[in-house]
TrEMBL record:
Catalyzed reaction equations: D-erythro-1-(imidazol-4-yl)glycerol 3-phosphate = 3-(imidazol-4-yl)-2-oxopropyl phosphate + H2O
UniProt GO MF annotations: imidazoleglycerol-phosphate dehydratase activity
Protein name: Imidazoleglycerol-phosphate dehydratase
Known EC number: 4.2.1.19
Database matches in CDD domains: IGPD
UniProt record similarity statement: Belongs to the imidazoleglycerol-phosphate dehydratase family.
Listed pathway(s): Amino-acid biosynthesis; L-histidine biosynthesis; L-histidine from 5-phospho-alpha-D-ribose 1-diphosphate: step 6/9
PANTHER family xref list: IMIDAZOLEGLYCEROL-PHOSPHATE DEHYDRATASE, IMIDAZOLEGLYCEROL-PHOSPHATE DEHYDRATASE HIS7
Entry keyword Oxidoreductase: no
Species of provenance: Candidatus Choladousia intestinavium
């Protein structure tokens, strides 16, 4: 079966983004967003989901990190939607409860074609490194809407902000890996409607 890949380029007055995604990769992440902690989160996403992700972002970081992070979410969501293709044979749903030291986070998603985002994560600090913690919600919201997926997070046990963020990114990667994986029993699209 051919690798499911997508390449998305987005250029605005605020950001210039080039992203390549392979859903059937080996976990190779080549990430440069200009935001160290965000790079670390996306490297974890690639590694733990076994996705190959190549990403170069030039954003207006002299303003703040918001546009860079939100626009990256938009582009990653577009790439996921393009790479997954017609969704025939995939599991569609994915979920993971993931521990990150004292933190326990749940992520559940559905590649339904209907975007919706829910998260109850409240971070104990306003910033991790040079990244505003409120942009974590903006990133995942943008991914969910661009990919047209239902995406839910529940922070079952909070704690250190770094651990909370890392738990969310890793849980998302594992849930997405499950959702896009093939099941030999599914011969078409997993829906009574016949399409997603």
């Amino acid at each position: 079966m051919e690798s499911r890949r997508a390449k998305v380029v987005r250029k605005t007055k605020e950001t210039q983004i080039e992203l390549e995604l392979n859903l059937d990769g080996t976990g190779n992440g080549q990430i440069d967003t200009g935001i160290g902690f965000f790079d670390h989160m996306l490297e974890g996403f690639a590694r733990h989901g076994l996705f190959d992700l190549k990403l170069k972002v030039t954003g207006d970081l002299q303003v703040d990190c918001h546009h860079t992070i939100e626009d990256t979410g938009i582009v990653l969501g577009q790439a996921i939607r393009e790479a997954v293709g017609d969704k025939k044979g995939i599991r569609r749903y994915g979920s993971r409860i993931l521990p990150m030291d004292e933190v326990l986070v749940l992520c559940a998603l559905d590649l339904s074609g209907r975007p919706f985002f829910v998260s109850d994560a409240v971070f104990p600090s306003e910033r991790i490194g040079s990244m505003d913690t409120e942009t974590i919600r903006e990133f995942f919201y943008a991914v969910s809407y661009s990919a047209a997926m239902n995406l839910h997070f529940q922070m079952l046990r909070g704690g250190n902000g770094h651990h909370m963020a890392e738990g969310m990114f890793k849980a998302f990667s594992k849930a997405l890996d499950e959702a896009v994986s093939y099941d030999g029993r599914i011969t078409d699209v997993l829906s009574t409607k016949g399409s997603l």
